[in-house]
């Protein structure tokens, strides 16, 4: 009897999808998010309950055992230990699930995603300490299968923007980020409102350098200034951060409020806007809903047109011949010869569609 698990089958499927990218895999790859979600589910499945410092049960997260294993500093796994330390020092992720997601992204880049699974494979008692025996990582065979999939991923070239980590506590959906370098100035000309520890931009001075070419827009999130992470701890400190590099170019890392296709608001920022309670920002929601409705309408029309134009084969209509009551296939060759001899051959572009009973000939519209 073969041992398998639906999550491993799914992970294999997403891995095959990633193989289709011949050069490098970046945040634009639509399959990457699905792969990461699936792997996260593999890690979370079957975790045994654990106790907090006060002796109460707490929600188990894979991050806890990954951190524990990294602190053991097993030989040959120093890369993984360094990655865990990098995650712990990052001030953009605050929750166990956010740290787990950030860890997965860094491990993909550093080609060490397999290492913690390999440690559990070499030390099975560790696996049974953290996982149910019927889970993927608790079962010896399933663990080996998962390890083989992850070793395959080491062959891929991941080029991910690791600065893009601010919303990993909330979602795997990566926002659109831009890195800007502005000319030296005393003031950026932007106003922010701290909502849920994020610096939501609520106003941009039209005459400021930040406003040029819509580099920074109302509704965006100010993520970094001169490589300083901006979060709840930065309240009242923005001027001080600016003064540190007075007279030098200013670098900003901005998280855009629109998704990559510019059709809708990035969902976590949408929640920030609603939580802020600022009326002027709510207009962004209305604009986004109108844009989305208009886009949906255009997509429907486009699909309808494409369906109409793509149904059948593109051929030339040359004319018709009356064959009387005889309509069998033998008449086709005779009719063609008769039409050619008549000298009345037309050249009209049409769509020729074979149906279950009969045919449909539709004249193409010349735009």
UniProtKB/TrEMBL annotation:
SMART domains according to UniProt? PDZ
Domain (RUN) spans 26-165
Q: Where is the PDZ domain?
A: 177-247
Superkingdom of origin organism: Eukaryota
Q: Tell me the protein's name.
A: RUN domain-containing protein
| Species in which this protein is naturally found | Lasius niger (Black garden ant)
